[in-house]
UniProtKB/TrEMBL annotation:
Belongs to the class I-like SAM-binding methyltransferase superfamily. TRM61 family. Residues 78-366 form the tRNA (adenine(58)-N(1))-methyltransferase catalytic subunit TRM61 C-terminal domain. It comes from Ridgeia piscesae. One of its GO terms (cellular component) is nucleus. This is tRNA (adenine(58)-N(1))-methyltransferase catalytic subunit TRMT61A. It is an enzyme of class 2 (transferase). One of its GO terms (molecular function) is tRNA (adenine(58)-N1)-methyltransferase activity.
């Protein structure tokens, strides 16, 4: 039988590391990501003879060099994984020099700015370079990023990191106050991104920087007043399709819930064995456990959930079994009736009561050719 490859591995190669493509082997000079557990990652530089201390014990770079990314490494007190760096993993492990943008906003920015290989992008300010890495991967191998910040050390550090991450040839990092002096670029950009306290001052310069065929612009601002002022200026300058949005990531906790069954009188028909689609109502996302217990137990079908343990209790200790209070039984037609004390256990997903999520608003607009 012919096998169809699921993953295109043509971009996997050995050589200098790059955040824009994968390679197989860990080498000196690579920036690698250590996965120590859920939500626990670190980035480190692979250096000869270097030993890093982790919560699982010493990690010797010499033992990693020449081995494959993705491997599990045994340390004295536990194990961890060594992963190839990506812009997403960099965002959650990078050294913060400023507030940064996270994957939720970044994904929307890359999508809405229509970034693709070959795109030319202007960004201000560079900050910690979190967004810049994602832009660079999107525009590689033939695009370019011009990024600006007026803070000298941030500019220097970003430049160094882009080089270390194999992206230096795709980016220029300039120290410049873009609100006062603009970008010094005309007719080069397909897209412009602004993460500045006063983006409206830069918008006239941004307009000059677009290619003759126009392009897309995005401004990130934490306050709605900044958004309003940005929108007004965009409109005055002739930008169209102006749209502001907020990206909120919603997390849901999975819980096992034990809920008493409503007594509707006369027992509840739960259908025949082998026909569980009968008249039993499923009140929300999840699955229902059947077990009448007592004398009908052996005739009643039961579905097991993920949290099942061999003794029928759930992970959180709740009993999974239907309870019929001793009154349930065969209805005489092969169907089973449930009585008033019945309860059922199911899994459900629900959001936390409080969900902090606001980072800021993204305002997008289009500049069409004159
Ligand atoms: C919040 S940070 C940007 C974070 C970046 N988007 C990231 O994901 O890492 C804002 C940056 O804009 C820079 N900045 C503020 N005003 C500026 C201006 N007028 N010209 C250039 N850079 C400016 C600051 O120095 C700061 O580094």
């Amino acid at each position: 039988m012919k096998r169809i490859p699921v993953v295109d591995t043509s971009c996997i190669h050995a050589g200098t590391m790059s955040f824009a493509k994968y390679k197989k082997t860990i080498e000196v000079g690579d920036t690698a990501i250590l996965l120590l557990g859920y939500d626990n990652m670190l980035q480190l530089m692979i250096e000869k003879d270097k030993i890093y201390q982790t919560k699982y014990g010493a990690l010797r770079c010499n033992e990693l060099i020449g081995t494959r990314y993705g491997r599990r490494v045994q340390c004295s007190k536990g194990w961890l994984y060594v992963l190839h760096a990506t812009p997403e993993l960099w965002t959650v492990t990078l050294p913060h020099r400023t507030q940064i943008l996270y994957a939720t906003d970044i994904s929307m920015i890359v999508f809405q700015l229509d970034l693709k290989p070959g795109s030319v992008v202007i960004e201000s300010g560079t900050g910690s370079g979190s967004l810049s890495h994602a832009i660079l991967r999107s525009v590689a191998p033939s695009g370019y990023l011009h990024t600006f910040d007026f803070h000298a050390q941030r500019v220097e550090k970003a430049r160094q990191e882009f080089e270390e991450h194999g992206l230096g040839h795709l980016v220029s990092v300039a120290e410049r106050d873009t609100c006062k002096n603009g970008f010094g670029l005309e007719c080069v950009a397909d897209a412009v991104f602004l993460d500045l306290p006063g983006p409206w001052d830069v918008l006239p310069f941004a307009k000059q920087a677009f290619k003759a065929e126009g392009g897309r612009i995005c401004s990130f601002s934490p306050c709605i007043e900044q958004v309003q002022r940005t929108c007004e200026t965009l409109e005055k300058l002739g930008f169209t399709d102006i749209q502001s949005l907020e990206c909120l990531a919603r997390t849901f906790d999975v819980r096992t819930v034990n809920m008493p069954l409503a007594n509707l009188g006369g027992g509840v028909d739960i259908g025949v064995e082998g026909d569980q689609s009968g008249s039993l109502h499923q009140p929300c996302i999840g699955h229902i456990e059947y077990d009448t217990g007592g004398r009908d137990a052996k005739n009643t079908k039961k579905r097991r959930g993920d949290g099942d343990t061999p003794d029928g209790s759930t992970e959180d200790g709740a009993s999974k079994k239907w309870s019929d209070g001793g009154n349930g039984g065969d209805a005489g037609d092969g169907r089973t009736k449930m009585s008033e004390s019945a309860s059922f256990v199911f899994k459900t997903a629900h959001p936390p009561v409080q969900m902090p999520g606001h980072t800021g608003f993204l305002t997008f607009a289009t500049l069409y050719p004159d």
